[in-house]
Each structure stands twice: as structure tokens, then as C-alpha cells.
Write a structure and sequence with these properties.
By secondary structure, the protein is α+β, with helices and mostly antiparallel strands. The protein has 21 helices and eight strands.
Length: 505
């Protein structure tokens, strides 16, 4: 049943996020709200900082957590592997100019975040015990009277919590620890069990405990990562003006880098920016709905600082480190994503650079797990009532073990909103099936023929008749059905393959 649901939702998500129209709608909405709200990002910035500092906190207001704790919980879910691997991917595929378009997307996204989180406060529910429940599903239900749409949002959020919020992040913790200890992947089951205990101790206490832990982890991990980045930037201070010039030139000057290159910078910058800060995706409003305030606009102002911190600060640190060190230029073909970021930090900090990336990945991923548990349990409550919350938390905790230890195709399908499946036919029958998360596709022309090009720096699985092949990073073109796997390739010979004369890789 879950396999079928996963495949269906993966296909729907692939259709939505595989289209530039989706990115245009999200970005266009942000532009509209920015103009309609008279640049609230600028006008309300100072007041946002005052609210976060606790200046306007009132203990008698409805809600469960402070402004700062609500923001920390939301940031726990948004500050993640995308800040380390996503930025590197954008620069690798879209050039340095992609960072500029991430900035633009974040600035515009602040207005979107302000709007959706203000609405989540306005239409939240507060029970007799003071427990809150809010988010897009309640806005859709009470504000727009769209019950079916509200239920659909909650359902997909519930599914996503196990994938993007849980199992994939658990795998990322193992990956992060491998930067600190190369043999960490050999102990994935043990790591998963330890994580499950830690996650359970946090999430079983509800949003107050989640917010308390998040408000401790988020500042620490952000300060650690930013401090390491500042050391690298300080050591390359003379290269910083040139790096900024490179960013703006590649982003805005089509005559310097070619119109197509500028188009790629826009595409990758906008896509990675939207995915990084999640403005308009509807997850953060669930956390902000628990804020202790009776003024919806106040929490909207607090929430809009999320894209600022996530993209304009932390993602900028990653991007500038990669650019000033020149790591994006002088690199091996398979050095992409988190590996590129690690190489950039290591070029200045040695083994300490890899440690920073490893600790960052571990803490970012762990914090995402605990934050997404709250998104999932609010969705469960909306769909099935209060009785579903505790069973959800128990199952969610157990899923951490599975996610850490097993690179399941199911996990990939649930988790990745840009999931790709490609079937390669030979003589009318499927010869090979490619499954890949975090995958991007585009159409091109070769000798006047339209071809499909797909590429990713994430996990990939090739399912063939006689073997299953896994790896990280790939490129595929339909012109000649050629697959290129970059690294970590493993071949599993199936039991049905009794007489193999050879397999061409």
C-alpha cells in the first residue's frame, strides 16, 4: 500500500516540480506580495529583530512557545543539507551567478513567508488546554473553506515527514559522520538506534521540548558553520571583491558568459533558493502557528527572518567559500554537492574543513528530523484526531532506524519531490530502470533531434535484469541511452543471474 502511495505521490510531485511553471508561480507570488505589502522585508526588518529578542513577548498570550523558539523550530527544518550540498550543486550546474539569484529568491521569499505564517496564526486552533494546531491546512479549512484541499495538504505533509523529514535526513547523519570517521557507514544500524533514542526523547515531549532543543541546536550549529566560513573568507580577503564581481557578472551580463549560461544561473539559483528557504511550501507555518502571541502579523514578521538567515546568511557563506577558494573550477568531475563544499573548506582548514562539513551535515540533518516530526504530528491530528498523535510519534521514531541503515528505493520516492524514474527499452521490453532522487531534467537538441538529459549528485539506483547497481551522482542522455555513474558505485548480482557472460558498465 505504502509503495503504491509513494509511487503515485512521487509521480505527481515529479510532474509539479519538474516544470519551470511551478518555480515561476512561487517566485511570481513572492513578487506580487512584495509589491502589495510595500516591501515588508525592509519596512518590518527592525521590528522583526525586536520581536525575536523577546521585547514584545507577553506570557498571557495564547500559544506554546516564544517567537524565538518558533523561529528556531522552523529553521531546524529549513537549515539542512541544502545549505551545504544544495548551494554547491547550484554553483556547479549554474555557475557563480546562481548565488545572486538565490539572494533575489530569498528576498522575495521573505514576503511569502510573512504572509503564509501570519495566516497560520490567524486561523490556528487552540484547545482548552492551550495546545495549538495550525498551518496551511487550517488556513485552507477556516479561511478559504476548502476542506478537501486542506485534507490533501495534510496527507502529503504526513507522507513527506517520513521521507524528506526523517529517513533521508537519517541517511544524511550517517553521511555526515563519515566525514569524521570513514567507517561510520559500517555502523549505520547502531547510529540509527542511537538517533532513534535521541529523537524519541525529544519529540515525545511535544512542541515545547522540540522548540527548546531547536533553540539550542540552531544557534550553535549556525555559529559554528558561519565562524568556519568567516575564517576561510578572512584568509582569502583579497579574493572577495573578485568573487563578488564574478557572481554579479555571471548573473547579469549575458555578453560576458553567454545567454544560456545566465539562464542556467537563474534556473538553478531560483530552484535551490526556493528549496532552501521553503518559502511558499507550507511547512514553516505549522511551526510558527505554535508561537505565543495574539497578533498574527507579529509572527509573520518573525517568520520572514527565516529566508534571511537560511539563504542570505548561511547559504551565502557556503557559496562565497566555494567561489573565493576556486574549488568550483579546479575540481574532479565527481566532486559535487557536499563533497565540493568539503573540498572548499578543506583547502583552507585541512582536515578541520571536512570536520566542519561533517558536523554541519550531522547537526543540520538531526535538527530537521525533530522539526519535521512536529509537522507530521500536526498533520496526523488534523486528519485523524488527537488519538493519532502519539502512535505517529512512535512510528516516526522507529523510522529513523530504517532511514539510517537502509538505502531504500521507497525512501527515495517518498523523500524527493523531484523524483525521477526512467525506463530504458530494448526490443520492446524494459532493459533497465533508473531511480534517482534530487534529479533534474532538461531537454536539448543534438543534430536537430530533441533529447532528454538527466543529472544529479544524489543517490542513484539502476535496476537491470541480472544486476542492481547503486552509486552517487549520474548523467544520462536519451541520445544514446548512456549512463555515467560518478562515484561510490556498487554492483549486486541477482540470484536469478546464473550464467553471466559480462555486464557493461
Amino acid at each position: 500500500m505504502i509503495d503504491q502511495l509513494t509511487e503515485i505521490t512521487g509521480q505527481i510531485a515529479g510532474l509539479l516540480w519538474g516544470s519551470p511553471l511551478t518555480l515561476l508561480i512561487l517566485l511570481g507570488t513572492g513578487v506580487y506580495l512584495t509589491i502589495r505589502l510595500r516591501f515588508v522585508q525592509v519596512a518590518g526588518f527592525r521590528h522583526s529583530a525586536q520581536l525575536i529578542s523577546g521585547k514584545y513577548d507577553h506570557p498571557d498570550d495564547s500559544g506554546e512557545v516564544s517567537h524565538f523558539q518558533a523561529l528556531s523550530t522552523a529553521l531546524s527544518a529549513t537549515i539542512g543539507t541544502g545549505n551545504i550540498a544544495g548551494v554547491a550543486t547550484a554553483i556547479s550546474l549554474g555557475g557563480p551567478g546562481a548565488l545572486f539569484w538565490m539572494w533575489i529568491t530569498a528576498f522575495i521569499g521573505m514576503a511569502t513567508k510573512f504572509t503564509e505564517c501570519s495566516l497560520s496564526l490567524k486561523f490556528r486552533e487552540v484547545d482548552e488546554n492551550g495546545n495549538t494546531a495550525g498551518g496551511p491546512m487550517y488556513t485552507l479549512l477556516h479561511g478559504l473553506k476548502l476542506k478537501k484541499t486542506a485534507m490533501a495538504f495534510a496527507f502529503f505533509a504526513l507522507i513527506a515527514s517520513f521521507g524528506i523529514g526523517n529517513m533521508v535526513q537519517a541517511n544524511s547523519v550517517v553521511d555526515g559522520l563519515s566525514y569524521l570517521h570513514p567507517d561510520a557507514k559500517n555502523y549505520s544500524w547502531i547510529i540509527g538506534l542511537v538517533m532513534a533514542v535521541m529523537v524519541g526523547l525529544v519529540i515525545l515531549g511535544g512542541v515545547k521540548r522540540i522548540a527548546k532543543v531547536a533553540s539550542t541546536i540552531v544557534p550553535f550549529m549556525a555559529l559554528l558553520y558561519i565562524s568556519a566560513a568567516m575564517i576561510v573568507l578572512f584568509n582569502n580577503m583579497e579574493a572577495l571583491p573578485s568573487a563578488l564581481n564574478t557572481i554579479f557578472t555571471h548573473a547579469l551580463n549575458p555578453w560576458s558568459v553567454g545567454g544560456a549560461a545566465v539562464g542556467e544561473a537563474i534556473r538553478w539559483g531560483v530552484a535551490r533558493g526556493l528549496f532552501s528557504n521553503e518559502a511558499g511550501l507550507g511547512s514553516a507555518p505549522i511551526a510558527h502557528a505554535a508561537a505565543k502571541t495574539n497578533e498574527p502579523v507579529r509572527e509573520g514578521l518573525v517568520a520572514m527572518m527565516g529566508p534571511f538567515i537560511d539563504t542570505l546568511v548561511i547559504c551565502s557563506m557556503t557559496g562565497l567559500v566555494i567561489i573565493v577558494t576556486g574549488s568550483y573550477i579546479d575540481r574532479a568531475e565527481d566532486v559535487v554537492g557536499a563533497a565540493l563544499t568539503a573540498a572548499a573548506f578543506s583547502s583552507e582548514l585541512g582536515d578541520g574543513g571536512a570536520a566542519v562539513v561533517g558536523i554541519g551535515l550531522t547537526l543540520f540533518a538531526f535538527s530537521t528530523i525533530i522539526a519535521w516530526s512536529y509537522y507530521g504530528d500536526r498533520s496526523a491530528k488534523f486528519l485523524f484526531g488527537d488519538g493519532a498523535v502519539m502512535p505517529y510519534r512512535v512510528v516516526y521514531t522507529l523510522a529513523v532506524v530504517v532511514g539510517a541503515a537502509v538505502p531504500l528505493q521507497l525512501v527515495w520516492n517518498i523523500a524527493d519531490i523531484t523524483n525521477l524514474r526512467i525506463d530504458v527499452y530494448e526490443e520492446g521490453e524494459i532493459f533497465m530502470t533508473l531511480f534517482a532522487p534530487q534529479c533534474f531534467t532538461k531537454k536539448g537538441e543534438v543534430d536537430g533531434k530533441t533529447v532528454l538529459i538527466a543529472y544529479s549528485d544524489g543517490d542513484v539506483l539502476l535496476d537491470m535484469e541480472q544486476v542492481t547497481i547503486t552509486g552517487k551522482g549520474f548523467r544520462f542522455t536519451s541520445e544514446n541511452n548512456r549512463f555515467e555513474l560518478f562515484h561510490e558505485s556498487k554492483v549486486l548480482v541477482k540470484e536469478s543471474a546464473r550464467d553471466m557472460k559480462g555486464v557493461e558498465l
